[in-house]
Amino acid sequence: MNLMKFALTGALAFGLIASANAATVYITGSTAMRATVYSTLNAAGAVFDATPTFVGRDGSAANGCNYMTFNGTIGGASITVKAHWSGSEAGLKDVVTGQPESFLADSATGYQSAKPTAGELDPTSHAADLAMADNSQAYSRTPAPVVTTSAKVGVIVFTWVRNPSGLWGGTSNNITDAQIRQCFGGFAKLALISGNPSDTSYVYVSGRDAQSGTRVNAFGSSGFGIFTSPNQIELDASGNMIDLSGLGDYAGDYGFSSGGTLAGTLGVNTATKADPFNGGTGFSVISYLSRGDADTAITKGAIELTLNGVASNAANIKEGRYGFWGNEYIYRKNGASTDAQTVYNKLANLTTGINAFCDGVKAIKLQDMHATRNGPTVDPVHN
Would you say residue 17 has pLDDT above 70? Predict the structure, then answer.
């Protein structure tokens, strides 16, 4: 019995030591790409030797969690990868400046759709080792100092949708870049889109905050300007415009930190809702979303829009006919640890990493593209 106790005690001690010595790599960035990165990390042999143990919080599905933890071995060594998907711009800033993020605590287990409790978060915030971004650092709010190690790992798909406002009537479900630019200003009447002078209600944009790569691509590809301040609104669950400042400031440089949260607000008809920004009753909302978040919005009643008369689909993107998409990058902070370099190399591998897990709908493999673009302010060019 004593020998058995000794053996069990020794095994337990060994397990605790192994756990304590397990390296942790921190990743952040693009919420639009988190599902693809989840698939990559969760696939046996892609990054980890075998399927890792997954922990997730704050997402309607495991692959949509804003907080993720993967525990497993890479090359026989115990490694934990922790993710907090804070947005492309936030992620780039983290790897460039060392600004820390919050991550799940080691004690958190299982998957829950709810946000993490205070006890489920690591009491110590951590600097990110890696970041996913829907745009290159050259088009970001943190262009310097330059991150010396990065790789393009796919193409991320975006689209425009509108809420199910009855005000549109027989108006075609199409939007142009010129119309988008005016809607971003907060004073575009529906008549601009419908051509009917009696359509005097306003069309607003509900979008993402300045930490979002989806926003970078929407602002850049439409010609509005990546760093131009918009008049965006946000809706509550009932479709009412929210006073975001508490001072009667219903439109401004606001936006959601998560595309999934934004998508959940776009299924309400606002044709009879008060318009506290421009006055009157009734208004419409358009929004820019990743393909995955757009699908969520559509299931709630939103309607997809064509852009400049062209639909957002893989065929049009591959040939460069549809211009609202982004180059997806992975960045590794300068001076990263050996373990972070190992995880980066696995994820950046074009044959077995993230690129291999692009599904052709939400994200497209680089080798499937027949068009390229240097950045969100540049038109696609066919190869």
Answer: no
